[in-house]
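Hey,

Quick one before I head out. I ran the complex with dioxothiomolybdenum(VI) ion overnight. Inputs first:
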Amino acid sequence: MDDLIGQPLDRIDGRVKVTGRAVYAYEHDVPNAAYAVMVVSSIANGRIASMDTRAAEQAQGVLLVITHQNSLKVPGAQNQSKTSPPGHAVQALQDDVVYYANQPIGVVVAETFADAIAGAQLVQVTYAPQPPQMDLESRLADAYAPDKAGGGGDPAASHRGDVQAGMAEAKKSIDYVYRTPFEVHNPMEPHATIAVWNAPDRLTIYDATQGVFSDRGRVASVFGLPPENVRVISPYLGGGFGSKGPVWSHVILAAMAAKQAKRPVKLAVTRPQMFGMLGCRSETRQAIAMGAKSDGAITALRDDTVSHTSMFGEFVEAASLPARMLYQSPNNSTSQRLVRSNIGQPSYMRAPGEASGTYGLEAAMDEMAYALKMDPVEFRLKNYAETDPEENKPWSSKSLRECYLQGAKHFGWSKRPLEPRSMQDGNALIGWGMATSVYPTRRSVSNASARLNVDGTFSVDAGTQDLGTGTYTIMTQVAAEAFGVDAKQVRFRLGDTILPQTPVSGGSQTAASTGSAVHLASQALREKLIQMAIRDARSPLSGLGAQDVILNKGRLYARSNPARGETFRELILRSGQPHVEAKAEAKPGAEKDHYSMYAFGAQFAEARVDADLGQIKVSRMVGCFGAGRILNAKTARSQFLGGMIWGISMALYEYAAVDKRLGRWVNNNLAEYHVPVNADIGKIEAIWVDEKDDHVNPIGAKGIGEIGITGAAAAIANAVFHATGKRVRDLPITLDKVML
Ligand code: MOS
């Protein structure tokens, strides 16, 4: 089936999802399950002075109350693994220390969910509190440089040329601080775990996870089990966005509770509990200075970013990464520093680093363009990096120039007056802004197997996950095309550690990593079948060369004579085997040493700002991306749009408000933690450049889960400036900031 890849195939999992038959983590039917609810701390720093569990223990249906006083000891909970995603240290009731608000400090296990909720209310806690450390700005002097920045293991700082000399050479320069707030992931499906001990040393976990194998590894190490004694099952996810990448406290607590209660245990995180214990996007402070000659050539660029980490672990919100490689700046310096705060562990959140970093850098690029009185697209083209300026390597492919040009054309950018506040429609000030998108192209070692069954069905297995992104669908397409059957004949399974080992679905790497493995396994199976036929004297294809055999629509036949051939079924039946199987491992090779690999894009936004009230609406948005081979036009479009819509959220709505005196999250619910709804979204379009990349991986896909959010907030912020003439440098751009 040529050209099946790329087709807008409907979601394989669409029907079971809309009919409610897709079974999510918490919904697995486990006999004799008890229900666990976490008790969380109401202070952000200090110690637990006392916990009185007597009333809870006597409450209806309550089986067990676990606190640090009676918990199973699991020393491995404190370890931070260095692998990606990090097994952050988790809070598993091992001591009386409180590091952050909403930290788990107890678990109530009961016969029903309602009993567990009611029991949890009855746990009496007293604390010895300390003032929480929450503020970034007042503690910049305490900031320290970490060893590494970001999930790719980049260095924490970078230098090339001489920034001071470059600044001296500049005709125009800017120097500003850009800020992004705390954001907290809120997938539709909150985290949930079911733990079942099948034997004292054998555990099955149904989990909402982005990585069944990393989940297995972490749980096994915490409980001192060999990994093969733990099975993790996760067939469907209601979103993840990075929050379900690491293994958090509740997973360990579910397994601990099941062990101590001697029952299978179901544990769901409540929506308010999502704030604090499951990662967040750290607030950032990005100090960016730039200089340019009067022709627009950048002479120097500096980006010094500070973000929070927790008191017990480390994560760098690597916002300075785009400033290292996006433009041809000869004198360049970036740094990342961290401040320790009383928050849960900040972690990966969709395009960690790049989402925040492209806001600061691309808003600064807009400011520089204005200082030069240059069109923002023209300014970016003037500083276009033909090779990676930081690594001195060629790009594996880069279609950013086409993205600027096609995006601008699609949007109608050429009609844009340069001056701010020059377009108006009644009471609405109208502005157009743009920004660059960028996200690294990653892959990790992945396995898959492909099997042709005697009934003619084609089964493909890989342990991987589908976050709602379309993994089931694109893997089906990749397998069908590589093997040479219709997509309907493919049965693709994922989300289980009994299947071939695959990496975490993070860093936009699933299509590239597991897609490549599925491609190779399907091709290997095809070759195997052809070899079986041509080497078997009983086959009508006996004696032909492999290249002379076509495999299509359930048959193998001679290229020169389609009538000469046999069905899959005939071939397998003759072999005496129940099926024929091929396995493949796909792993990164030397391409990283030779090429710099990124997806790029350009985003264009129209903002309408009420001249009196400051209300902002993004009425139009166009994103144009160059992300390698697009595997499914429909699911890809959804990924791009989802990212862009999150960019609208980042620009205008979203922030997790913290009470710095108490260290508590103020808006830990979806009524007050604002994200856009349908009415907030105007006309939004994602388009892409047909990009061929022979270097990144065998299927040429770059990954699209994260690039859509990068640059989006800056395009909108720049549009708001163009509409109003007012530059807001801290997100979100709420109406009060535009009016004041
Ligand atoms: Mo993504 S934040 O790497 O799941």
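The domain at 149-183+280-442+593-738 is CATH 3.30.365.10 (Aldehyde Oxidoreductase; domain 4).

Talk tomorrow,
K.
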